[in-house]
Amino acid sequence: MKLYQDPQAVNPRRVRIFLAEKGIDVPFENLEVLKGGHRDPALVAKNPMMRVPFLELDDGTVIAESMAICRYFEALQPEPVLMGRNPVEQAGIEMWNRRVEHQLLGSVINCFRHGHPVMVALEPNQIKEWSVLNNTRASEMLGFLETEMASRPFIAGAEYSVADITALAAVDFLRAARLELTDDHPNLRRWHADVSARPSAAA
I want to staple 185 with a disulfide (CB 3.0 to 4.6 A). Which of 31, 98, 101, 181 is the partner? Predict the structure, then answer.
């Protein structure tokens, strides 16, 4: 089993944090995406979408997409539970994870891909207006989460979950969208301090 990843990219970090929370040790093969490492023909044959991370199992099966990889490990090793114990918990965590993934993390990534010169290598047709719009969307989502987090310690409820992993990766990547948590986000700053203190945050 091997996880192909770029240690500088935000989505592989989500999987690394998930694995750290589970206490699962998986060997990594590091690729430099900005230098085209993910475009090696041998890797494209394994993962035609050319995105990281992707997991190759011992039998040659390839699982791509961060949450698909996490679901595989959740099923393989259910404890500690990070995706819910019952249908209601599972649905709630999925709901919040998707909200954070699409409305915050996705917006920050789009802002970065279309607004930063270094990303021309991956996004040669940058659309500056799309970067600006996604900056606004990310800022609005921070405001939404700030209000929501007044009533609970973690993104999806009373317990740490994969939704917190996605949110942590997104908040730590805010600088790419020229955003940050401010005094207007006391609930998010409290949450961020708590989840950042977990050993897995360093993965």
Answer: 181
